[in-house]
Design brief:
The complex is a heterodimer.
Chain A: E1 3-9, E2 12-18, H1 24-30, E3 49-52, E4 55-58, E5 71-73, H2 86-93, H3 103-116, H4 122-128, H5 140-151
Parallel strand pairs in A: 1-5
Antiparallel strand pairs in A: 1-2, 3-4, 3-5
Chain B: E1 16-19, H1 23-33, E2 37-40, H2 44-51, E3 60-63, E4 72-75, E5 78-82, H3 87-92, H4 94-98, H5 104-111, H6 114-117, H7 122-127, H8 135-141, E6 145-150, E7 153-158, E8 163-165, E9 168-169, E10 176-183, E11 188-197, E12 204-214, E13 220-228, E14 235-236, H9 238-244, H10 251-264, H11 275-296
Parallel strand pairs in B: 1-3, 2-3
Antiparallel strand pairs in B: 4-5, 5-10, 6-7, 6-10, 8-9, 11-12, 12-13, 13-14
The chains are: A alpha+beta, B alpha+beta.
The structure holds FE2/S2 (inorganic) cluster (FES) (2 copies).
Chain lengths: 155, 300
C-alpha cells in the first residue's frame, strides 16, 4: 500500500508516493533525483548521502517514510541560478573527482562540514568524510577541496 | 554461528506503514499484529535485515516518532534517554561529552559514520540485538537499564540481561523500548570506547567499552568491561573484570585483563576477521582501553 509522503526536496514542497519498505534513495531516484547514487544497499559506501534537515544521512539506509515532513537536499539542489555551489567549485578546481560516482555523496557531506564545522582541522575533515568510499582518487584531493572551501570561508 | 541464508530482497514486503500517535496506540498495534509488526525509528536495521532476508514475516511497520520519545534528561538519580533519540544527539549531549564517567557514550557515537549517527535511534541500536553494533556494550558498562512498555504495563530490564541470543531479545512481541536509563554516579571514575574497523563506514570488527572507578588508595574499586562482535550477543566480560578489581591501574593489570578477556569470549569468524584475530584484537583493545581510562583518571 502506497503512503503519501510530504517533503521539501531541494526547496520544493512535494508529495511523493512510497511503498512502506522502500528506502529514501530509491524513492528519490525514481522521482528524478539521480545524483543520489546506488553503491551498495546497506550503509557501506556513502554514495547515496543526502542532507535531511541539514544533516547528512545515508538515504539507502532510512525508510522513505522516515523523510516525511523533512527537508531534503540532494546534489541537484546545490547550484543556484546556474551558479555552482562553492564546494562544487573547489571539487572541480582541486580535481577531486575521477569517475565521479562517489562525488555527489562526498559533496553532500562536505557541504555539511563546510557549513557546520568551519573550524574543523584536516583530521576532523577526514573523520567526517569517513563514511564515504572512493575507489579512484585516494581521498587526498577530496580533502584538499573541502579544506579549500573552508579556508576561503565559502559557504 | 547459525548459517545465515541470504534470501531475495522481495521477501521484505510490509504492506502498511502506521504512524502511531501515542505510546498506548503502539502497544495496542503490537498486541494486534504480534510478530507481523515491527517498531521503526529511521528503519536502518529493519531495512538492512529486510534486505538480508531476515524479516519475511513483517507486514506492519509502526513509526513511533510522534509519541514523544526524543529527549535526553538528567533527573534525580538518572540520565534518561528517550528511545527515539538519535545516536548522534545522544553523543552530543554535554553530560556524555564532558563527564569522564559517561564519556564512552560520546566516543561510541563518534565512531558511527555521520550519516548513520544522524538517523539511527538508540532504541534501534539496542533492540535489533545485532551483536556487532556499538551501543549495547557501551550501555552495559554504565549499568544502564531499559524501560519496556507492553500491554501488561511497564517493566525494566538491565541492558546486560536483555539479550537472549543472536538477534533475539527478551522483549515480548507486544513490548517496545521507551527509555534508556543510566544511573548517575559520583566518585573517581572514567569510561572509554575503543574499536577496530575495516573501514570507517563499516560495523566494528570488535568493539570494547570499559568503565573504571578507583578507591582512595588508587586501586580499582569497581569496573565494567563489555564487548561487541565477540559472540552471539553483546556481552559483559566478568572474568576480565574480576582480574581488575582491587588491582592497580598499571600495564601488568591491563595485560592480565586482556588475557582473561581473550579467554572468555567466544568469537565467530566472518568476512571481517577470524576467531583468532578477534582474540588478538580483544587483548589489544582491552589494554588500549584501560590505558586510556588510566589517562583520564590521571593515573601515572
Ligand atoms: S548506497 Fe547508501 S551507503 Fe551505499
Ligand atoms: S571518483 Fe571514482 S569512486 Fe570516487
Amino acid at each position: 500500500m502506497n503512503t503519501d509522503l510530504e517533503m521539501t526536496v531541494n526547496g520544493f514542497k512535494t508529495i511523493l508516493k512510497a511503498e512502506p519498505y522502500e528506502n529514501l534513495r530509491d524513492l528519490l531516484r525514481k522521482s528524478g533525483y539521480t545524483s543520489v547514487k546506488k553503491g551498495c544497499d546497506v550503509g557501506g559506501c556513502g554514495a547515496c548521502t543526502v542532507l535531511a534537515n541539514d544533516k547528512p544521512v545515508y538515504s539507502c539506509c532510512v525508510l522513505a517514510a522516515w523523510a516525511d515532513g523533512k527537508t531534503i537536499v540532494t546534489l541537484e539542489g546545490l547550484a543556484k541560478d546556474g551558479k555552482l555551489d562553492p564546494i562544487q567549485r573547489t571539487f572541480m578546481e582541486k580535481g577531486a573527482a575521477q569517475c565521479g560516482f562517489c562525488t555527489p555523496g562526498f559533496i553532500m557531506v562536505s557541504k555539511y562540514v563546510v557549513e557546520h564545522k568551519p573550524n574543523a582541522t584536516e583530521a576532523e575533515v577526514r573523520k567526517a568524510l569517513g563514511g564515504n568510499l572512493c575507489r579512484c582518487t585516494g581521498y587526498v584531493k577530496i580533502v584538499e577541496a573541502v579544506m579549500a572551501a573552508k579556508e576561503q570561508g565559502l559557504k | 554461528m547459525p548459517r545465515v541464508y541470504v534470501k531475495p530482497y522481495s521477501e521484505f514486503r510490509p504492506d502498511e506503514y502506521i504512524r502511531a500517535k501515542s505510546k498506548e496506540e503502539v502497544v495496542s498495534l503490537l498486541k494486534q499484529y504480534g510478530e507481523a509488526a515491527r517498531v521503526v525509528g529511521a528503519g536502518i536495521t529493519i531495512h538492512e535485515m529486510g534486505v538480508l532476508g531476515f524479516l519475511p514475516q513483517v507486514k506492519k511497520l509502526i513509526d513511533v516518532r510522534a509519541v514523544g520519545l526524543d529527549y535526553v534528561a538528567v533527573t534525580g538519580k538518572w540520565i534518561k534517554v528517550g528511545g527515539s533519540t538519535t545516536v548522534g544527539n545522544m553523543g552530543d549531549h554535554e553530560i556524555f561529552r564532558n563527564q569522564p564517567i559517561y564519556q564512552t557514550v560520546s566516543e561510541a557515537a563518534d565512531s558511527f559514520p555521520l550519516q548513520v549517527a544522524n538517523a539511527a535511534t538508540i532504541a534501534g541500536n539496542i533492540c535489533s540485538a545485532v551483536p556487532i553494533v556499538s551501543m549495547p556494550p557501551v550501555l552495559m558498562t554504565l549499568d544502564a537499564q531499559v524501560v519496556l512498555l507492553g500491554s501488561s504495563g511497564e517493566r525494566i530490564l538491565p541492558v546486560d540481561s536483555l539479550y537472549e541470543d543472536y538477534l533475539i531479545t527478551k522483549m515480548k512481541p507486544d513490548e517496545f523500548l521507551t527509555e534508556v536509563q543510566i544511573p548517575l554516579r559520583d566518585g573517581k571514575g572514567a569510561s572509554v570506547y575503543v574499536a577496530e574497523k575495516t573501514v570507517a563506514a563499516d560495523y566494528p570488527t570488535v568493539s570494547l567499552s570499559a568503565s573504571v572507578f578507583l578507591d582512595d588508595g588508587g586501586k580499582v574499586k569497581d569496573c565494567r568491561i563489555a564487548m561487541g562482535s565477540v559472540g552471539r550477543t553483546a556481552r559483559r566480560l566478568p572474568e576480565a573484570e574480576k582480574t581488575l578489581r582491587g588491582a592497580k591501574m598499571e600495564a601488568q593489570s591491563y595485560a592480565r585483563a586482556g588475557e582473561a578477556a581473550a579467554k572468555e569470549i567466544d568469537p565467530s569468524a566472518d568476512l571481517r576477521a577470524s576467531h583468532e584475530y578477534r582474540r588478538i584484537l580483544t587483548r589489544y583493545l582491552t589494554k588500549k582501553a584501560l590505558g586510556r581510562v588510566a589517562e583520564k583518571l590521571g593515573v601515572k
